Amino acid sequence: MSSEFATRRNSTSSRSSRRSKVNIGTSYLEENGCVIFSPTDPKHKKYENFNPDKLEIWDKTRPGHVQENIWSLGDTVHLHELTTMQEILLKVQKRGPIEEWVCDSILVWWEHHSTWVLQREQLFRKYWIPLCETRFHYPKVLKDACKKYARTIHNISTVIKQLALGDDLKDLLHMWKSYEKDVRTYKAYNDNMGVMLYHAYFSPKDADRNLKDAYTYLATFESIRGSCCANRKSAGYVPSVINTFGEHIFRHVFMKREQFPDFMWDAIFSKQYQQFCTHIVVHIDALLSGNAPILSEWTNQERNFTVNLESFLNLNPLHPEYQKDKRFPPNKLKEWGHELESETRTITNKALKDEIKSIRKALIMVERRGPLEDWELSSIRKCFAQHYAFVTSFYAYTSQVHIPFLETRICLPKIMKVSLDDYIEDIDIIHDLVDSLKVGDGIQELLQTWYSYEEKFSFAVQIHDPMYLILYHAYFSREEHLVQTHKHLKNGSFDDCFGSVIYHFGKDNFRRIVLKQEELSDLTWHFKFGSKYDRYVRDVVIQIEALTSGLPAENDNRAVSKLFSFLETNLSDECLNPSNSKVPSALRIGNSRGQTKHRSGGEIMPDDKRLSELITSLYSEYGKR
Predict the structure, then answer these.
(1) Whose CA is closest to 410, among 505, 454, 476, 361?
(2) Which run of H or E residues covers position 589?
(3) What is the DSSP letter of 572?
(4) In this predicted model, which residue has the larger pLDDT, 128 or 414?
(5) Contact between residue 490 and residue 528 where contact means Cβ atoms under 8 Å apart
(6) What confidence tens digit (pLDDT) does each residue in 157-174 have?
(7) Radius of gyration over every alpha carbon of the chain, rounded to an integer in angstroms
(8) pLDDT, tens digit, 9 for 90 and up, residues 115-149
(9) Which residues pair with 323 in a beta bridge?
(10) Residue among 296, 321, 498 nearest 411 (CA)
(11) Distance CA 179, CA 187 (A)
(12) How far apart are CA 319 and CA 225, in angstroms?
């Protein structure tokens, strides 16, 4: 390793002092009676044919090997991120009660941080410890220290998800101090016990080979967790390393040491870091300055995924294990012209995630106000009914229609199918809880179940989406996709999904991007999608706003009002004034002045009958305006 990196790490330990005994000298370890530690102590030895005699080789060939160990570097990055955020949170706390954007910015940063930290912790438990225990007894105190900070992370996640407008950060900062102490404790143990034992029993050559295996394991794990999925806002561990040590050291020290070819900087790492700056640093800067972050539209903000294996990294759709039939090779990737962030499954799952988050925030405010009022119960049931229909219909389509369709050509990974089942169990439990609510009840149980549901859904999307996107685009052509899409649009498979998707993706984006890429006429907006959007605003958005603010929602019949305006402008007086609930004998198209013309020679078409019946029922229910 270069002297530049060694200087930056402030490595002051002498090689001779590490060869036999290490003076750990931290208060954390003193508390546990473990100040002097010897990696050559026979009590750590597990098998006779593996001896702790490799430290001298490390000292001669790789000076500073303890601080430069991959796990020690990860601990440094981990500690740097959490201490930086602790300083930021203290500044936010001094500014007083938090605003809504502060809650969102803290959550965005935390999702990035906790995702890569927990992935690393998973790698530690599932790969690193079993590897070490093939040669020596791994210290229990180190295992326990890792579990402790992982538990703290889960506790902090709960607190951050409950943050709302007007809160202070007192409880969060208190937990953050515990988090910092837990990580420092773990780092002290790992640097001075775990790494020293590893270097005593594994030679540098062994370590190089093990590191390649670790990267393979991590790549597999990340492909399952979807850390490189199109709807994630960061790329995990690597950008945090670059942010901690600097681009120059990463390129000229880390990449050389890990034997990464130079092209990987431009092809992968620089793009990941750019995404980190775009989607994470912007929130950190906002929290520091006290000014809300300036974010571009979601479609412009997401990663610009061109379909290539280097960007997608971990799942190789060309591997023969996925091919079910030789007649259908995975050669369709180049046929797809649009970017993956506007792929219908991506925007549908993002809409669901945003909707789940919005309802959770509303429920937090309801729970804080106390026992349920009548209007609150009505609003909860109204918005949940729409959400439940959205989730269950999309799940039914995916599991009963789309996955069987994929399996006609692809041997799908088992985890891809299993991942969808967990959150459905929770949404059914929530359905029963909402049904059983009464005026005056508390919603603590409902809110806790919602947390579980949100976490399971996010995890399922992280597993399912990257596999789906890359395999589907490899084995099915764009023309085949359009045939399937138009077929299921016609039979109504997606009807319960559109309102939320349009609202969260944006009306203009939906009309400009989605309709165009799915080759749908703009007329479908007026005859199909526009009404779905209006209904969603009325039954979900307005109800969520009411539950969040504590002000009951007024009766909102904007969709009906718009329809009446359309009818008055385009239909004749005869059609607009059905008498005695009688359907007119002919439906004519004209304007409010009575200038009319007949459709198709004056014949009543099936659509005319349905529209006339609709007009009659609307007048019956709402009365003439």
Answers:
(1) 476
(2) strand 588-590
(3) -
(4) 128
(5) no
(6) 889 988 888 888 999 999
(7) 30
(8) 888 878 877 887 788 888 999 999 899 899 988 98
(9) 410
(10) 321
(11) 12
(12) 19
Cross-strand pairs, 37? 22
Which residues on adjacent β-strands are paired with residue 590?
A: 596
Beta strands 588-590 and 596-598, pairing class: antiparallel
Burial class (CB in 10 A: 0-12, 13-18, 19+), 523: exposed
DSSP assignment of 194-224: IHHHHHHHS-HHHHHHHHHHHHHHHHHHHHH
SS3 537: helix
Measured in whole angstroms, how far is the alpha carbon of residue 547 from the centre of its chain?
A: 25
The token pair at 391 is 């989730």
Name residue 136's beta-bridge partners. Answer: 45
Integer Cα distance of 142 and 146 in angstroms: 6
Q: Tokens 């990055």 appear where? A: 77
What number of other Cβ atoms are within 10 A of residue 559's Cβ?
18
Angle at the Cα of 171 from the Cα atoms of 434 and 232, rounded to 5 degrees: 65
Dist CA 446 CA 431 (whole Å): 10
Contact 194, 129 (CB under 8 A): no
More confident residue, 436 or 6: 436
- CA–CA separation, 519 and 90 (whole Å): 51
Instruction: Please answer whether residues 497 and 535 qualify as being in contact, where contact means their C-beta atoms are separated by less than 8 angstroms.
Output: no
- Cβ contacts of 212 within 8 Å, gap of 6 or more: none
pLDDT value at position 338? Answer: 54
Please count the residues of the chain.
625
pTM, rounded to two decimals: 0.54
d(CA 451, CA 382): 20
Instruction: For residue 547, give the DSSP letter.
Output: H
Closest CA to 193 of 13, 15, 31, 34: 34
Collect all residues with Cβ–Cβ distance below 8 Å to 354 and sequence separation of at least 6: 504
CB atoms within 10 A of CB 536: 26
Q: Among 24-38, 239-253, 284-298, name the one with the lowest average pLDDT.
A: 24-38
147 burial via Cβ count (<10 Å: 0-12, 13-18, 19+): middle
In single-letter form, the type of residue at position 143 comes to K
3-state SS class at 136: strand
Torsion, Cα 334 337 340 344, to 10 degrees, reads -120
Which residue shows structure tokens 């019946």?
Answer: 613
**Tell me, what DSSP letter sits at residue 292?**
-
Exposure string (b/e) for 410-448, b if CB count within 10 Å is 16 or more? Answer: bebbeebbebbeebbebbebbbebbeebeeeeebeebbe
Q: Return the beta strands (E) in 16-160 as ranges.
A: 22-23, 36-37
Please choose, from the candidates 19, 3, 21, the residue with its C-alpha nearest in 3D space to the C-alpha of residue 11.
3
Number of helices (H) and strands (E) in the chain: give both, helices first: 35, 4
How many whole angstroms separate alpha carbon 202 and alpha carbon 54?
6
Which residues does residue 400 pair with via DSSP β-bridges, in sequence order? Answer: none
Amino acid at 298: W
Q: Which amino acid is at 30?
A: E
Residue 596 is given by DSSP the state E
